[in-house]
Specification:
Immunoglobulin-like, 5-stranded antiparallel beta sheet, 18 strands, binds 2-acetamido-2-deoxy-beta-D-glucopyranose, 2 domains, mainly beta, rod-shaped
Length: 249
């Protein structure tokens, strides 16, 4: 068992060198597939084999230096990070199909097809595909949250499930206004961010606030309008909040 493992490690290493050398050689023409987190991606190996050939070939799908899936003598093996959500579509360009995409799935995948030739396996075909995962924040929501004092209202702006790390700001007439509390949280497992922020305002005048969340080159925003009603007695104001959500790409 031990010697088999060592042999496997050795052959994998020499195979890696072949892959790396080929990658350097062909890396300019690499195709890019962009999918949303939690979605599905099919990465084409650009190669077809017939079912009866399957027993005589080895197929490897690898991401950078980690194995994803292998088909050796028709036996499919899927590595743990990809288990239960990854398969190879042999009838469709030997595609690697990954479901429930995670942010950590982003990277360059390489497909290698080896065939036997006089008893030893030779690289017959090699393709690399870059998988890019996007995680867009939904339009934030603003809720009327608390009444810290009769004159004050506290509103809460929040959104979650995006990447990269967001920055949140509140604007009124294009000027930044100070939030009470802004927190940015990253889920350690999914790497996705949640952001929320509180803003206090005085109900005795009209307001139009924009909650602006920027992440990478993108941003999403929501507008909260407050209309003070003239006839209300002081200390018992009833306003009308109006929300307008905007996503900017
Ligand atoms: C399979 O690969 C061929 C050749 O590159 C391409 O024309 C075809 O669209 C691919 N099929 C799918 C379903 O991706
Ligand atoms: C593989 O077979 C599919 C289905 O017959 C075809 O659409 C595709 O073009 C073939 N791909 C290659 C690389 O020949
Ligand atoms: C895949 O599914 C099987 C059966 O449901 C389960 O035993 C196994 O733990 C799962 N593996 C992973 C990595 O989730
Ligand atoms: C800010 O939010 C954090 C987490 O929600 C909370 O623990 C903290 O008490 C808040 N601080 C203020 C000043 O509201
Ligand atoms: C709200 O605004 C009114 C009128 O400008 C002012 O009298 C009051 O002190 C303010 N309340 C707070 C809590 O800032
Ligand atoms: C507040 O907004 C309402 C509706 O737009 C308007 O009728 C009212 O004059 C405004 N009040 C002040 C103090 O600007």
């Amino acid at each position: 068992m031990d010697s088999i493992l060592r042999w496997k490690t050795l052959t994998r290493f020499s195979w890696l060198m072949v892959v790396l050398a080929a990658l350097f050689h062909f890396s300019s023409g690499i195709s890019v597939v962009t999918k949303a987190v939690q979605g599905m991606a099919a990465l084409s190996c650009n190669y077809n084999i017939s079912v009866d050939e399957l027993s005589r070939v080895r197929i490897y799908w690898q991401k950078e230096n980690n194995m994803v899936l292998s088909i050796i003598s028709g036996n499919v093996q899927v590595w743990s990070q990809y288990q239960n959500r990854t398969f190879s579509d042999i009838t469709n360009n030997l595609s690697l199909v990954i479901l429930a995409l995670r942010l950590s799935d982003r990277g360059t995948y390489t497909c290698v097809v080896q065939k036997t030739e006089k008893g030893s396996f030779k690289v017959e075909h090699l393709t690399s595909v870059m998988l890019s995962i996007k995680a867009d924040f939904p339009t934030p929501s603003i809720i009327d949250f608390e009444h810290p004092s009769p004159d004050l209202r506290r509103i809460l702006c929040s959104t979650s499930g995006g990447f990269p790390k967001p920055s949140l700001s509140w604007l009124e007439n294009g000027e930044e206004v100070k939030a009470v509390n802004t927190t940015v949280y990253q889920d350690p497992e999914t790497e996705l961010y949640t952001v929320h922020s509180n803003l206090d305002f005085n109900v005795t005048s009209n307001h139009s606030f924009m909650c602006l969340i920027k992440y990478g080159d993108l941003s999403v925003s929501q507008i909260f309008n407050w209309e003070k009603l003239k006839e209300d007695p002081p200390g018992n104001q009833i306003g009308v909040p109006i929300l307008i959500g905007v996503s900017v790409v």
